[in-house]
Design brief:
- The protein is α/β, with parallel strands linked by helices.
- The chain has three domains: about 60 residues, Roll (Archaeosine Trna-guanine Transglycosylase, Chain: A, domain 4), CATH 2.30.130; about 110 residues, 2-Layer Sandwich (Transcription Regulator spoIIAA), CATH 3.30.750.80; about 190 residues, Vaccinia Virus protein VP39 (Rossmann fold), CATH 3.40.50.150.
- Helix 7 packs parallel to helix 8.
Length: about 400
Amino acid sequence: MYKKLVLKKGKEKSLLNFHPWVFSGAVASNISEIADGEVVEIFSSDKKYLATAHFSNGSIMGRIISFEQGEINYEFWKEKFTGAFALRQRLGFIDNKLTNAFRLINAEGDGMPGLIIDVYDRTAVIQAHTIAMHNQVETFAKILSEIFGNNFSVFDKSAEMLNRKNASPVNAQNKYLLGEKGNQIISENGLKFFVDWEQGQKTGFFIDQRDNRKLLSEYSSSKKVLNAFAYSGGFSVYALKAGAAMVHSVDSSEPAAQWAEKNVTLNFSGENRHVFFKEDVFDFLKKSQEKYEVIVLDPPAFAKHFSAVKNASIGYRNLNAEAIRKISAGGILFTFSCSQHIDQALFQKIIFAAAALAKRNVRVLHRLHQPADHPFSIYHPEGEYLKGLVLYVE
């Protein structure tokens, strides 16, 4: 039924351990007649079925969608979506009046590599990272309408990812697959945020920091807080709600400045404790004379490819060293990396180097990660992309 991808001898071990990727170096087959996005069945060198995958002519040649042989049809995808929905329902995200934004599909974590779907109230935003998944977006929209019912919109925001990442030419267009632009004000733990899924980064809002924003509020009362790489001001709003004495948000983006100010206004009338600085974070830290008692460092991914890990590590080290130098004695530093290629152990080593460079005594209070609606497979540790530490700086 599907074309076959045969592995080299001894290269089946990762699939027998349920890892969801097949790398090009493991493939023995002639792939000249297999198109990007095709469904393929993967076999060992001795012709034993191993898995069914989406094919891509790149370093990751197969992304596993099933370890059971069968037809990949509407019912197959509906079962995947139903399972993902049931998990979010058990986690308390369905019909939650305090929080109505959550991740419904988290790629490999939900058995659908290359697919991200975030839900903002009554709108789902799809971001397909592979041609194969983008070929199915109309099907996914139909399934979403069945699950969520009437007055539900689906926006496909895959164009940037597909047009940039794939070897084959792709002319994807961001568009509504179902419905039209709806409510853009979401609720998170009772706080309100404006989400621009059409123009914003990723799917429009960094839902994955929800729990970490809440934790920040526990350390912010009466404190001077710096939110670096603030984007739309999520951490800033939580700090203000907790009673911070002052909150400074820093980001070089003009749209980020507008969204952050809008989010502050949505939650607080006539707020004068918040100031946004549209500046480069490194420059701001170097020249600022303010002594902050709480600092948040949530930079974009410095290492988007494995080859960039060395330079990214130096960047993270220097950034954190500057923040550790600046923070008040007894200060609390929330520091993050969302680079998939920098794991928790390496990130902690980088922060160790930063603390040593700054010549201050630093203790770890918390290890942070992505929330439960961003699950990762036990067989795919690479899915734990968000790493964070909360540090006490003496």
